[in-house]
User: Which sequence fits this backbone?
């Protein structure tokens, strides 16, 4: 039996290294992930119900009340204006109708 030459030994080592390369890379990647996991612990998921809304201050409530009052007064004035406009329109229609009747009587 012959002893393998250094060239044969080197070729065998290259073949073995090429087949183990993927496994070694995966092992190194797993070790790096384990190191990162130890360095940075993942935060615990927080419940959405724990986040309470802040309450409005007194100044905000006063501002809202003032805005509602001003809006209510504005709506009241608008309603009053529409009522006056309706009354004026009714008077104009009645006067025009009376004038039309007078024109019809005089024309005969």
Assistant:
């Amino acid at each position: 039996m012959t002893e393998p030459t250094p060239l044969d030994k080197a070729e065998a080592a290259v073949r073995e290294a090429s087949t183990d390369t993927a496994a070694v890379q995966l092992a190194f990647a797993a070790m790096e992930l384990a190191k990162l996991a130890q360095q940075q612990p993942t935060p615990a998921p927080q419940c959405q119900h724990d986040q309470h809304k802040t309450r409005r201050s007194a100044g905000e409530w006063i501002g809202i009340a003032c805005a509602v009052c001003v809006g209510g007064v504005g709506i009241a004035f608008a309603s009053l204006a529409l009522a006056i406009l309706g009354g004026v329109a009714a008077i104009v229609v009645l006067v025009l109708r009376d004038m039309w009747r007078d024109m019809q009587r005089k024309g005969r």
Observations:
- Residues 11 and 33 are 33 Å apart (CA to CA).
- Residues 58-107 form the longest helix (50 residues).
- The chain has two domains: 1-39, 72-108.
